[in-house]
Design brief:
alpha/beta, Metallo-beta-lactamase, Chain A, 7 helices
Length: 246
């Protein structure tokens, strides 16, 4: 099998803490190229890293907050001019189609109704059910993070490797399930020790670390508070542009 390459297109939070781009993770194996989350700043981030948006066959979103799916309208509009005829799959929790089309109409009125050269296909990922998205398999595990639709931690199977991704959310048993046996767990660590609703702190993650049966862990989606205390963190931390080979 072809090796799997994971690249952090954006490793930041919703507010650009530390000058980082909003969440977007590129996963590639052979001819397969998918994105996990596409924040509003992701198209710019891809261009800075010389990643061709036209090579992306699928976008998989964890939940429907703007910093995780708000870049899709820009991605689609850009594709209208540059993509050619290659189809694009947009996958996420229930309601993903409606929210993407609504966002397109808010940002660029009429854009959701334009006839495109390429097929855009939406896939709703049911909870705890393995779903095929292009050449990869995806399972969503619901986590506590209100967003007007279910919010997921993802378990992605690509090129014979398993990548787990927490998305956003408080600690829950779903993270244990998603991470079990994963080659890589990409996990939110929003604050260092402050506990707030709907997000995960590094202190909580450290307390639960032994239960996360993954081969490798890397932290992402960090606030200014977390970034200011990097020297106290005992886990690997992502940054924009970081490449991991699995």
């Amino acid at each position: 099998m072809a090796p799997v390459t994971v690249q952090f297109v954006g490793s930041g939070d919703a507010f650009g803490s530390g000058g980082r781009f909003q969440p977007c993770i590129s996963v590639r194996s052979g001819e397969t190229h998918v994105l996990l989350d596409v924040g509003a700043s992701s198209l710019t981030a891809m261009q800075k890293l010389d990643l061709d948006p036209a090579s992306v066959e699928a976008i998989i979103v964890t939940h429907l907050h703007g910093d995780h799916f708000g870049g899709i309208p820009f991605f689609i509009l850009d594709a209208q001019f540059r993509r050619g005829t290659r189809s694009l799959v947009l996958a996420g929790p229930a309601g993903v189609r409606e929210r993407v089309l609504q966002a397109m109409e808010v940002f660029f009125p009429g854009s959701s109704r334009i006839e495109r050269k390429f097929e855009t296909r939406f896939v709703e990922i049911p909870a705890r059910t393995a779903t095929s998205v292009g050449a990869i398999g995806v399972t969503g595990y619901e986590v506590p993070h209100p967003s007007g639709a279910p919010a997921y931690a993802l378990r992605v199977e690509c090129g014979g490797k398993i990548i787990a991704y927490s998305g956003d959310g408080e600690w829950s048993e779903s993270l244990v399930e998603a991470a079990r046996g994963a080659d890589l767990l990409i996990c939110e660590a929003y604050y260092f020790e402050k506990i707030i609703r709907n997000h995960l702190s590094y202190a909580t993650l450290r307390q639960q670390r032994a239960r996360l049966e993954c081969r490798r862990l890397i932290l992402t989606h960090m606030s200014e508070d977390m970034l200011a205390r990097q020297d106290e963190v005992g886990e690997a931390m992502a940054h924009d542009g970081l490449v991991l080979n699995l």
